[in-house]
């Protein structure tokens, strides 16, 4: 079996992505409450796994795809993958920053950064608004991200543009 870095899917089931956001929200709130370095590192690992490989090595993505979506019969709504990957990258930056802040004892700043992450995870989970996807779309519109990066974006609607 050959594994290559950068194997993120071209398309994503929005309901699976929203389920992952719900799990991120729960873990973020639990981590803020417990101030556990292990939990915030697990959160950062999940984002790193999703950025590098999509759902393949992400426990939350696998749980969402194989359990939550089928059990709750959430269905399938296909959205472009690159904006979701961009959003996962932003989540990695926030969770990584929160990890460093907690590790160095900056508790108030840790809570603030992880609180922002939890807020945006809640927006995606409950309202279907992916802030990272919205920013990705704007960056494409302004020419900062070439249109070739996301051919699917030209044919499918961003989850933030409902």
Describe it for me?
With 162 residues, this protein is mainly alpha-helical. The protein is built from 7 helices and 2 strands, in the order βαααβαααα. The protein has helices spanning 14-34, 37-53, 59-71, 81-103, 107-127, 131-141, 151-155; strands at residues 11-13, 78-80. A two-stranded antiparallel sheet has the order 1-2. Helix 1 crosses helix 3, helix 1 packs antiparallel against helix 5 and helix 4 (81-103) packs antiparallel against helix 5. The termini are far apart. Mean pLDDT is 91; it is low at 157-162.
Quick overview:
The chain has 162 residues and is mainly alpha-helical. It is 69% helix and 4% strand. Strands 1-2 form a two-stranded antiparallel ribbon.
Total DSSP E strands = 2
What's the gyration radius in Å? 15 Å
Q: Output the number of helix runs.
A: 7
Instruction: Please trace the helix and strand order, writing H or E for each element.
Output: EHHHEHHHH
Instruction: Give the neighbour order of strands across the main sheet.
Output: 1-2
Low-confidence segments: 157-162
Strand content: under 5%
Rounded mean pLDDT score: 91
Largest sheet: 2 strands, antiparallel
Per the principal axes of the C-alpha atoms, what is the gross shape? globular
Terminal-residue CA separation: 39 Å
Q: What's the helical proportion of residues?
A: 55-70%
Number of spatially distinct domains: 1
Structural class by secondary-structure content: mainly alpha
InterPro entries: DUF4395
Keywords: Membrane, Transmembrane, Transmembrane helix
Organism: Leptospira fletcheri
Protein name: DUF4395 domain-containing protein
